[in-house]
Write a structure and sequence with these properties.
The chain has eleven helices and 14 strands. It is an alpha/beta fold. The chain folds into two domains: 5-154, NAD(P)-binding Rossmann-like Domain (Rossmann fold, 3-Layer(aba) Sandwich); 157-319, L-2-Hydroxyisocaproate Dehydrogenase, Chain A, domain 2 (Alpha-Beta Complex). The protein has a six-stranded parallel β-sheet, with helices on both faces. The termini are far apart. Bound molecules: NADPH dihydro-nicotinamide-adenine-dinucleotide phosphate (NDP). NADPH dihydro-nicotinamide-adenine-dinucleotide phosphate binds next to helix 1. Residues 10-11, 13-17, 41-43, 46, 87-91, 108, 129-131, 133, 158, 227, 237-239, 242 line the site of NADPH dihydro-nicotinamide-adenine-dinucleotide phosphate.
Length: 328
């Protein structure tokens, strides 16, 4: 059969890690015919818990899981990695300024980028989940000069999936009948979920968007602030849906997006749609199983333009902040 794919997961003992690892090991991410080796990276305080999760993974007797190793050293954990899921990050603490947050995460994502550069497989595919995901991905990519920038991505698939669900609910159709929504910009409150190009059970998404009060006062903020709403309701942050989105992202990258549809991902900007070049920005994208490509030729109206530009500008600001800190 196929040789195993080495998947490195950081923050493996966290909430998202716990929801993610079992799905990877069961074959839901890379396909039911692809064996997987798992490398779990944690900080020293997290190693014992990661070892406990590794015991549970053993106890699932997943036929596709060929081995699990737990590390507290990034070089060792990324050695030979084909897929790297960067989940562990420094959350924003009370009273923490943005610069402090970026600096704390620079201390994580700079050495991880260097470790990926040093030892990951030539075909490595990196997904950054840990926030601020786009800029953490920019830091990692910038510190891996020998790895093509196209190998680094930031997760906006959860925002994309949230947008699909909200559109389906509004239109009273199945989520399976909604295609071609888009997330533009930063995985932050400034993100712009775009329905203007969507196909909603055969009808144009622009019809839903004619109700501007729904679009701008309900849909956009509901998608952008969904994480906070879940924390309020559950008492802890979304973990299973974030893990699900990471599985979806890598699945579509490796196996390709369906014909006639697209998804959203934070990728190295080539300047498409007037975005600054060299930020890690979300666009509507397709994958051919190897590389992501931005969906070209979409007409951007004034409502969308203003919001896309604002979110892209926020990413350019974050880039300036990490540049000033010497992280890129
Ligand atoms: P979670 O597993 O809940 O979250 C991990 C990261 O994912 C956070 O940065 C979080 O950002 C982010 N995230 C992105 N999208 C979402 C979403 N939709 N919902 C929730 N989170 C999202 O955090 P835990 O604290 O449970 O676990 C983190 C683990 O990482 C710990 O075990 C810690 O030891 C480890 N860690 C490992 C490092 C390493 O391997 N080098 C470095 C740092 C930490 P946000 O907080 O903004 O929601």
């Amino acid at each position: 059969g196929k040789s195993p794919v080495t998947v490195t997961v950081t923050g493996a003992a966290g909430q998202i890690g716990y929801a993610l690892l079992f799905r990877i090991a069961s074959g839901q991410m890379l396909g039911a015919d692809t064996p997987v080796r798992l490398n779990l990276l944690e900080i020293p305080q997290g190693v014992a818990a990661a070892e406990g999760t590794a015991m549970e993974l053993d106890d699932c007797a997943f036929p596709l899981l060929t081995g699990i190793d737990v590390y507290d050293d990034a070089r060792a954990a990324f050695d030979g990695a084909n897929v790297a899921l960067l989940v562990g990050a420094r959350p924003r603490g009370p009273g923490m300024e943005r610069a402090d947050l970026l600096e704390a995460n620079g201390g994580i994502f700079k050495p991880q980028g260097e470790a990926i550069n040093a030892g990951a497989a030539d075909d490595v595919r990196v997904l950054v989940v840990g926030n601020p995901a786009n800029t953490n991905a920019l830091i990692a990519a910038s510190n891996a000069p020998d790895v093509p920038k196209s190998r680094f991505t930031a997760m906006t698939r959860l925002d994309h999936n949230r947008a699909l669900a909200q559109v389906a609910r509004r239109a009273g159709v199945s989520v399976a009948d909604v295609r071609r929504v888009s997330i533009w910009g930063n995985h932050s409150a400034s993100q712009y979920p775009d329905v203007f190009h969507a196909d909603v059970a055969g009808r144009p998404g622009a019809e839903l968007a004619e109700d501007r009060a729904w679009l701008l006062d309900e849909f956009v903020p509901t998608v952008a602030k969904r994480g906070a709403a879940i924390i309020d309701a559950r008492g802890s942050s979304s973990a299973a849906s974030a893990a699900n989105a990471a599985v979806d992202h890598v699945h579509d990258w490796v196996l390709g997006t369906p014909d006639g549809d697209w998804t959203s991902a934070g990728i190295w900007s080539d300047g498409s749609y007037g975005a600054p070049e060299g930020i890690m920005a979300s666009f509507p994208v397709t994958s051919d199983g190897q590389e992501w490509s931005v969906v070209q030729g979409l007409e951007i109206n004034d409502v969308s333009r203003e919001r896309i530009d604002a979110s892209m500008a926020e990413l350019a600001d974050e880039r300036e902040a990490v540049r000033a800190l010497g992280l890129i």
